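Submission sheet (multi-component)
Chains listed below:
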Amino acid sequence: MTLEQFLLMRHEIILVIISVIILVSLLFFGKENKLKIIPVVIFLFSVNTILGFLPIETGSLFGGMYRTNEMILLFKNILNIGVLIVMVQSAGWLVRNKEHFEYTGEYFFIIICSLIGMDYMISAGDFLMLFIGLELATIPIAALVAADTLKTKSSEAGVKLILSAALSSGILLFGISILYGVTGSVYLDSVSTAFQNNNLSVLAFIFIFTGIAFKISIVPFHLWTADVYEGAPVNITSYLSVISKASSVFILIILLFTVFQSIAVQWDSVVIFTSVLTMTIGNLFAIRQQNLKRYLAFSSIAQAGFIMLGIVGGSALGFSSVIYFLLIYIFSNLGAFGVVAVISNATGKENIDDYNGLYKTNPNLSLVMMLSLFSLAGIPPVAGFFGKFFLFTSVAVQGNYFLLFIAVLNATISLYYYLLIVKAMFINENENPIEKIHSDGYSKAGMVICVIGILLLGFAGSLFDYINSLSFGLK
Amino acid sequence: MDILTLLLVIPLLTVIAILLSRNNNQVRISAAVGTGVQFIQTINLIFAYLSERNSGNIDEMVFTKSVLWFKTFNIYYSVGVDGISVAMIALTGIVTFAGVLASWKVINLQKEFFISLIVLSTGVFGFFISLDLFTIFLFFELAVIPMYLLIGIWGSGKKEYSAMKLTLMLMGASALLLVGILGLYSNSAATAGGPLTFNLLEIAKLNLPIEVQRIFFPMVFIGFGVLGALFPFHTWSPDGHSSAPTAVSMLHAGVLMKMGGYGCLRVAMYLMPEAANEMGWIFIILTSISIVYGAFGAIVQKDLKYINAYSSVSHCGLVLFAILMMNTTAINGSVIQMISHGLMTALFFALIGMIYERTHTRDIRFMGGLMKVMPFLAVCYMIAGFASLGLPGLSGFVAEMTIFVGAFMHTDTFHRVVTIVACSSIVITAVYILRVVGTILLGPVTDEKFNSITDAEWHEKAVTVMLIVAIAGIGLAPFWLSDIITQSLGAIILKLNPL
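Outcome: structure written.
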């Protein structure tokens, strides 16, 4: 292996270097100065994010276990941006919570570990690498979910996440082993050539789909979501709902479009069915929620249902729409979670009723929240509108108007509960609203990035065309 | 920069000016200047349009401009106008300007109010200049969403309920519309497997198969029809209008509801003429119900805003009714009716707002003899009323006359019957208008406290005079407007009635 080949793994190598730097520097900073590590980490990670945009050769390593191409590179960059925002937002929490949570460096280390796992997962050329990446992505996060040492719910959430993750991994592994039995290989390429359309293969598909569906929290595999999201620290919740979900969607699409292509007829109906179910259940449950984290949990389940729309029919257009939607979704959802995090950290209030009259005292936070919610709901002119419109278009061009109709109906239902928050912030009267919050620089920076993304991404027509030019290469 | 994009840029600059303003006075002055400039620009557009036509340009749309936006989906930012849209744009210009002047009084969160109002008007302007179904849909939603905040924050009465009801019904309608638009898009390939397009004019060139039209015509028509208060989807309108603050009622009844009629004509009927011919009768029946039901609804209401909201249902029903008659005269009448009703209802809502500020009630049972204490506003109210019941010399007469003449050109029994039914609304309109005028304006002053009421201030006079001049202008010289409209109807009529 030459150095150039080795550098195909540049993304992961830099991340490993950063994580080692963090571990080593922990020795030097000591417990008193633990907060000083935050700017260092954020600086390093920003550099990594920028470096990620350097072009890379298409190629594979380790006999095909690891592969990379422009689409994968683009997706890794999207994840990098998302993680950067999460880190910046987390910094606010870490600073405020420095009395109770002393593992500042470790916190970033764990997030980066999980990101390395995701990068390996989406670069995976065989099922073993995929499985290891998936585990590396999930297990560290369980530790962070339980990080809020002041709340029992947090440890409960950690246990719930690790148990459901273990179960889903088991199911996934079972599916992989059946697939190995059928095709005699674990390499994605050779599996897809040797794949035959028989009952056992369909069974393997069902298990693998289920295993990944747990991570994306597709109904009926969503039951862990609300509890874990509620218990975890808000920034970790946003990490779970955005980064972890996005990477699992990506790998699901890769598997469906390449390995399981020959049973497209079978998986198409599964995807349609779960998509409708996920949208509807997510929306209907979101209406009834009072706690904002649970509310955003169900909202993100409903969004997963919309994402599944792009997979239906297995078209390249749908695939590009999904990537574009995910990119916008990262900004919108992190914007909403950012506001919830700031308010929750400062006052401990997480209920919708607490937000009554928020605009009077905290106009900027309310505006960020409103823009993010409008983007999630798909209201023009913010970016979410474009993302959703293109997902719907990719369904429409296949002539599946019934599914389209259900989807737009769900979009209208979702508008109702998104408007409930807007109503609370802008319209409802409140005797003693949440007092003026002076958010720290990190949280502000995080929100500014999100707002810029939300406002501008929709108008970037060439960005979508770029994504689309790559996704034809995948098929 | 081309003349049409300028219509989007001016509001944007106005919003920025409002954001930078430091106090309430600066806010309202920037809003008034911005919308005033916009109004002048729309008048300028009319003259530019006329001189373009006089110089021999016979394209269907003029001032066209296309900029590629999303190559993958063939989405363009594509604008252009014909006579109908020019007239609608001018209407929007005058109503927005009048709306800003009508909300001159300092209110809570003034900055946010004017920003939302101007964003709303931007949506409407964008809608009327768009030629691409994607941007039509985008601007449609952009115009609807600020309504929620405008009614919810600055409204009165059961504002939260009304705001949510209005937004959800209109967004539900836009969901139907979205399915319709995407359906049109996915069937828009000129040759099998060719590129798909959102462009209105290009889709109009193909003849969509009748099976496709049958599915999507009702969706698009109802989608726009909800905004045009089509029975039985009109229920958002009375609640919404009565809870909204004055300027919002003016814009909503005056302009937004017209987007419904315009969309039905430009998208539903123009792109799917065969289905329109086939299914038109269903919607003719529904609109006839709208017309008569709205008028009867107005008779029994006690609240001035409810009366006017039901009256809007009736008049907007007439717009859709006339469109479905599918001949030049009727559709010409329908566009005049849109303009006329837009002006008239804006005047009505502005006056109701002014009366309410003085009497602190909108219930007609508690008002009386207002003519004695505020003669100027009372006379304006009477003029608006007369325009509404179709007094010759004012715009309402021209519009209704043209519509009914056009509708009566159909010789079959069905069309005759519905026309006669719709005609009966003229009588009912007279009943409720004259009842209101008689009760609240004439007679002795019923309440002691009314004696201290003062008459209109300068900005209120400006609003009413401006709108009355426009109403009387159309009433006295209708040929000017109707010429602009008629010469643009050729393409649509040809599609609806192929030779």
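Remark: Chain B has one domain: 6-496.
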